[in-house]
């Protein structure tokens, strides 16, 4: 019998399991944001500026043919559609993080992406069917993707060495890379194939990725069939006792919810994402209505900030891990330094945008620099939950993303309310002022309350069942008695 390995097997033997995880997470978060932001660029083409029949009709043939499948939605309705994503998103952040801690992030992240891809594929049909149907699909899409971000943290806790976690967190910022690629592609797809092609393309690729994820990724090194003994030992020895081998059966809610470091993460995350989502969702509209870019220019220029953010995320993460490994910065100092760098300057830049945002070159430059600097959150607060409580990192991130999801919905409502039938630079100046205040406040709170130290409540004692004796604790106490 021949013992020669197949070409596929030889290739996989050359790649470590962590490298495969890195690649799949990068691609996963690229697609995660492609599934989310495709509507923000497509809606510019979906909406007609002329009077056409409303979407609310039961004649599907009329709907498909009316104004080239364009819909007569005003700014409030458009922001209502964009904001509906967060109704579902906010519901699964915390449950998704906790579920990943209990059953593993592989299943939670994989299924969230799988069903989000299916929902993306049916989005054009929902839009043509009824305005309400589109909203329902977007709510369900948010419901699925809400669990994806916190689900990764429990996987990091068992797969990635503590001193490499900033670098791995930068993989999550591949979402920005996904947006940078998605926006110009969407612009060209819309021009040559129509807006429906945007959803078919992103949903189809997401479906392929989901199948590949379940075929290549496993919950932990202990259950991976291909991992080498050396790689498994390296991971488990580096992680040591920071993460329980047996998952804690309950969350120490009192200690967690009264922890200053936890609230530092939650509040700065909410502030940072509030600004990010406002720019993500509103930049195409601002460029069209205030700066007067066409759809192809819009898609290309809207992508620049995301590309810059990803480059910064990778650079800052590698620098932070290097400084920590060389003992030049403590984990606490690194988290505070990079968080301040990522959140405070964007706030100051929004102040500059108030005065010079009407200039096309200046506005695009400021938006690009602002989101580029914000990418450094991967070396700051984004992975801070893994520092202070790796056993509950999914729960902490779920709490933080719940607040940020609410802020994402509020940002859409805020912009829609301020610019309703009044798409002027003066109204957008108010938006920029609000963003500046939120960014600056969040960075100051984290500077005072943040830390990188492991918290005592990370390893809570298991609760005893009724009638169970405390035998294990009793023996050492008896042995340590001083006999006179």
TrEMBL record:
<dbReference type="InterPro" id="IPR050382">
    <property type="entry name" value="MFS_Na/Anion_cotransporter"/>
</dbReference>
<feature type="transmembrane region" description="Helical">
    <location>
        <begin position="20"/>
        <end position="47"/>
    </location>
</feature>
<feature type="transmembrane region" description="Helical">
    <location>
        <begin position="172"/>
        <end position="192"/>
    </location>
</feature>
<feature type="transmembrane region" description="Helical">
    <location>
        <begin position="262"/>
        <end position="283"/>
    </location>
</feature>
<keyword id="KW-0813">Transport</keyword>
<keyword id="KW-0472">Membrane</keyword>
<keyword id="KW-1133">Transmembrane helix</keyword>
<dbReference type="InterPro" id="IPR011701">
    <property type="entry name" value="MFS"/>
</dbReference>
<protein>
    <recommendedName>
        <fullName>Major facilitator superfamily (MFS) profile domain-containing protein</fullName>
    </recommendedName>
</protein>
<feature type="transmembrane region" description="Helical">
    <location>
        <begin position="139"/>
        <end position="160"/>
    </location>
</feature>
<feature type="transmembrane region" description="Helical">
    <location>
        <begin position="112"/>
        <end position="133"/>
    </location>
</feature>
<dbReference type="GO" id="GO:0006820">
    <property type="term" value="P:monoatomic anion transport"/>
</dbReference>
<dbReference type="Pfam" id="PF07690">
    <property type="entry name" value="MFS_1"/>
</dbReference>
<keyword id="KW-0769">Symport</keyword>
<feature type="domain" description="Major facilitator superfamily (MFS) profile">
    <location>
        <begin position="37"/>
        <end position="454"/>
    </location>
</feature>
<keyword id="KW-0812">Transmembrane</keyword>
<feature type="transmembrane region" description="Helical">
    <location>
        <begin position="198"/>
        <end position="218"/>
    </location>
</feature>
<dbReference type="InterPro" id="IPR036259">
    <property type="entry name" value="MFS_trans_sf"/>
</dbReference>
<feature type="transmembrane region" description="Helical">
    <location>
        <begin position="361"/>
        <end position="383"/>
    </location>
</feature>
<feature type="transmembrane region" description="Helical">
    <location>
        <begin position="335"/>
        <end position="355"/>
    </location>
</feature>
<dbReference type="GO" id="GO:0015293">
    <property type="term" value="F:symporter activity"/>
</dbReference>
<feature type="transmembrane region" description="Helical">
    <location>
        <begin position="430"/>
        <end position="449"/>
    </location>
</feature>
<dbReference type="GO" id="GO:0016020">
    <property type="term" value="C:membrane"/>
</dbReference>
<feature type="transmembrane region" description="Helical">
    <location>
        <begin position="395"/>
        <end position="418"/>
    </location>
</feature>
<feature type="region of interest" description="Disordered">
    <location>
        <begin position="458"/>
        <end position="484"/>
    </location>
</feature>
<dbReference type="InterPro" id="IPR020846">
    <property type="entry name" value="MFS_dom"/>
</dbReference>
């Amino acid at each position: 019998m021949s013992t020669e390995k197949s070409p596929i097997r030889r290739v996989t033997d050359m790649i470590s399991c962590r490298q495969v995880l890195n690649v799949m997470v990068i691609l996963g978060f690229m697609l995660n944001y492609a599934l989310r932001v495709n509507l923000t660029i497509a809606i510019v083409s979906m909406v007609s500026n002329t009077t056409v029949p409303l979407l609310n009709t039961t004649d599907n043939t009329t709907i498909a043919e009316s104004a080239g499948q364009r819909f007569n939605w005003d700014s409030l309705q458009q922001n209502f559609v964009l904001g509906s994503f967060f109704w579902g998103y906010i519901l699964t952040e915390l449950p998704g993080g906790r579920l990943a801690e209990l059953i593993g992030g592989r299943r939670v992240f994989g299924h969230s992406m799988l069903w989000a891809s299916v929902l993306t594929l049916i989005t054009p049909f929902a839009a043509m069917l009824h305005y309400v149907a589109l909203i329902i699909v977007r709510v369900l899409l948010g419901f699925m993707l809400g669990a994806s971000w916190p689900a990764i943290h429990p996987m990091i806790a068992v797969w990635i060495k503590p001193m490499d976690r900033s670098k791995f967190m930068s993989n999550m910022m591949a979402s920005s890379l996904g947006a940078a690629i998605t926006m110009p592609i969407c612009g060209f797809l819309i021009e040559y194939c129509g807006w429906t092609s945007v959803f078919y393309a992103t949903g189809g690729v997401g479906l392929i990725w989901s199948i590949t994820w379940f075929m290549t990724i496993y919950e932990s090194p202990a259950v991976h069939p291909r991992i080498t003994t050396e790689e498994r030992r390296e991971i488990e020895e580096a992680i040591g006792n920071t993460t329980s081998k047996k998952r804690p059966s309950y969350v120490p809610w009192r200690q967690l919810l009264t922890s200053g470091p936890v609230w530092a993460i939650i509040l700065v995350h909410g502030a940072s994402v509030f600004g990010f989502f406002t720019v993500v969702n509103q930049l195409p509209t601002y460029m069209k209505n205030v700066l007067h870019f066409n759809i192809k220019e819009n898609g290309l220029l809207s992508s620049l900030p995301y590309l810059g953010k990803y480059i910064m995320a990778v650079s800052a993460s590698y620098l932070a891990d290097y400084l920590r490994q060389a003992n030049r910065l403590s984990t606490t100092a690194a988290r505070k330094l990079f968080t301040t760098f990522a959140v405070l300057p964007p706030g100051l830049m929004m102040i500059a945008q108030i005065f010079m945002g009407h200039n096309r070159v200046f506005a695009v430059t400021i938006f690009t620099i602002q989101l580029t600097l914000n990418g450094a959150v991967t070396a700051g607060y984004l992975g801070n939950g893994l520092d202070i409580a790796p056993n509950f990192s999914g729960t902490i991130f779920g709490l933080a993303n719940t607040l940020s999801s609410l802020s994402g919905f509020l940002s859409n409502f805020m912009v829609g309310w301020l610019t309703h039938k009044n798409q002027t630079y003066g109204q957008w100046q108010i938006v920029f002022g609000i963003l500046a205040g939120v960014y600056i406040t969040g960075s100051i709170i984290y500077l005072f309350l943040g830390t990188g130290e492991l918290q005592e409540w990370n390893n809570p004692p298991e609760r005893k069942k009724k009638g169970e004796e405390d035998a294990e604790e009793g023996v050492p106490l008896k042995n340590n008695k001083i006999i006179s």
